[in-house]
Design a protein that fits this description.
Distance between the termini: 61 Å
Mean pLDDT: 78
Helix content: 25-40%
Shape: elongated
Number of helices: 2
Structural class: mainly alpha
Length: 80
C-alpha cells in the first residue's frame, strides 16, 4: 500500500489538486485531518465560549436543578 501525504486546502468545489492524480479513478482509503481552528472559523465560531450569553432559551429559569426535577416529575405523573 502506498500513501500520498499532502497538506492542502480543499477547494470549495471539492475537487482534489493534481498532486493526487495518481489516486484518481482508483480505490483508496481516505482519512481527512482538519485543523480545529480553521474549521471553527469557517462556521463563524472561534471558541465555544463565544456562544455564552447568546442562547436565550432558558434565561427565565432561576433555579435550573429545581426546574429539571419538576420537568422530570411531570413525566412520571404522565406514565401513571
Amino acid at each position: 500500500m502506498k500513501s500520498i501525504d499532502k497538506n492542502i486546502v480543499i477547494a470549495s468545489d471539492g475537487k482534489l489538486p493534481s498532486a493526487f492524480r495518481e489516486a484518481f479513478g482508483r480505490k483508496a482509503c481516505v482519512i481527512v485531518h482538519l485543523q480545529e481552528d480553521a474549521h471553527r472559523k469557517t462556521q463563524g465560531i472561534s471558541h465555544p465560549m463565544d456562544l455564552a450569553g447568546k442562547i436565550r432559551a432558558f434565561q427565565d429559569v432561576d433555579a435550573p436543578v429545581a426546574w429539571q426535577r419538576a420537568l422530570r416529575d411531570s413525566w412520571k405523573r404522565d406514565e401513571i
